[in-house]
Write a structure and sequence with these properties.
The protein has nine helices and 15 strands. The protein has 337 residues and is α/β, with parallel strands linked by helices. β8, α3 and β9 form a beta-alpha-beta unit. The protein starts with 5 loop residues before the first strand and ends with a strand. The structure holds NADP nicotinamide-adenine-dinucleotide phosphate and 3-(4-hydroxy-3-methoxyphenyl)-2-propenoic acid (FER). The site of NADP nicotinamide-adenine-dinucleotide phosphate has 31 residues, from α2 and α6.
Length: 337
């Protein structure tokens, strides 16, 4: 790798509210030599995900915060360019948490070999990767949908939401998505087959839910929290299941918003709200991946990716993710396949 440097994006400062470009810095590190038992990976794709915002805070409820100066944590897809272990051969494609950098050394324990026959490499970070598994298990296992149910999903055009909505349709559920632009609403309704869409930036979510969910809501897949979730809770049915996936509306606030406290509604509705982490289903991810891959082959699941070129553009793209500028799974292309 003589003549090459390893460009990395590091955490320069802990963001206050919405991250700024100055919270990140582009640094040049060495391309490390793999030792015996290790591999060198050339990164091709970076995954940009909302959870990374939480890791930029000084404290975290369930994961280790990033240190200042540390390479931004995150999933990547890359190619083995040097192997000093029989477990990997040069040219193999792998996925793992190697962070926002062009090259990384690993002992292989955090790498998953990507089955490149299932789809383009980028899908290992999206529909066939962490967000796809989140949708699959968070919806089917936590949400427990039944044929004929009414399902509502927030952040519906995003990496997780678009998969949840399509699985919901496959399960025979009336499916309503909430998203933030007319183009996203058009996409979920006309390309993905959702029954209805609500633009929470221009419409009254509560009034629209009454209109498009006349029989109430049986499953709510919650990606956002905040006022959108308050509105959905007003429509839950007896025995509803609320799958709490994330609360992106709160991620860039120093203090969580206080608003109507609606958990009491679950009493009369005998409803269940349950949080989950995609990792709790890790023993079954392969099953979820094969199932989604099958649906893609059959044309029953489509996916949309939002690709930004160049590692230097990762911070700007991440700031956009926090504001709904992405349309589909957000990825940064770092080098050629
Ligand atoms: P994504 O939906 O592709 O992107 C984030 C989207 O959130 C934005 O495009 C934006 O879409 C929406 N958003 C941003 N600010 C918002 C606000 N204030 N109110 C409402 N919506 C807002 O991201 P993703 O990767 O699929 O993640 C979706 C959720 O799943 C996040 O909460 C994430 O933390 C969670 N998650 C959880 C797990 C788990 O294991 N529990 C795993 C992965 C992801 P609009 O234009 O529609 O506003
Ligand atoms: C994981 C568990 C949760 C993970 C990501 C998440 C990268 C995301 C959580 C969130 O967005 O709140 O193992 O792997």
């Amino acid at each position: 790798m003589a003549g090459h440097v390893n460009r990395q994006i590091r955490l320069a400062a802990r963001p206050a509210n919405l991250p700024r470009e100055s919270d990140f810095n582009l640094a040049e590190g060495p391309i490390l030599e793999p030792r015996e038992g290790e591999v060198l990976v050339r990164v091709i794709w970076l995954s940009l995900d909302p959870y990374q915002r939480g890791r930029m805070r000084a404290t975290h409820p369930y994961a280790t915060p990033m240190e200042l100066g540390e390479v931004i944590v995150g999933g990547v897809v890359g190619k083995i360019v040097r192997s000093r272990t029989p477990a990997f051969t040069e040219g193999e494609v792998v996925e793992g948490p190697l962070g926002w950098q062009e090259y990384a050394v690993s002992d292989g324990s955090n790498l998953r070999k990507v089955d490149t026959s299932l789809g383009p490499l980028s899908t290992a970070l999206g529909v066939l990767g962490m967000p796809g598994m989140t949708a699959y298990f968070g919806f089917l296992e936590v949400g427990q949908p039944r044929t004929g149910d009414t399902v509502v999903v927030s952040a519906a055009s995003g990496a997780v939401g678009q998969v949840v909505g399509q699985i919901s349709k496959i399960m025979g559920c009336r499916t309503v998505g909430i998203a933030g632009t007319p183009e996203k609403i058009d996409y979920i309704k006309h390309d993905l087959g959702f029954d209805a869409g609500i633009n929470y930036k221009t419409e009254n979510v509560n009034a629209e839910l009454a209109e498009v969910c006349p029989l109430g809501v049986d499953v709510y897949f919650d990606n956002v929290g905040g006022p959108i979730t308050d509105a959905v809770l007003d429509h839950i049915n007896v025995g509803a299941r609320i799958s709490i996936c994330g609360s992106i509306s709160q991620y860039n606030l120093e203090e969580p918003e206080l608003g109507p406290r609606k958990m009491g509604l679950l009493v009369g509705k005998q409803a269940r709200a349950e949080g989950f982490l995609v990792g709790q289903f890790r023993n079954r991810h392969e099953e979820g991946r094969q199932r989604i891959a099958g649906w893609i082959k059959e044309g029953r699941i489509k996916y949309r990716e939002d690709v930004v070129d160049g590692i230097e553009n990762a911070p700007g793209a991440f700031i956009g993710l926090m504001q709904g500028e992405n349309f589909g799974k957000l990825l940064v292309k770092v080098s050629e396949d």
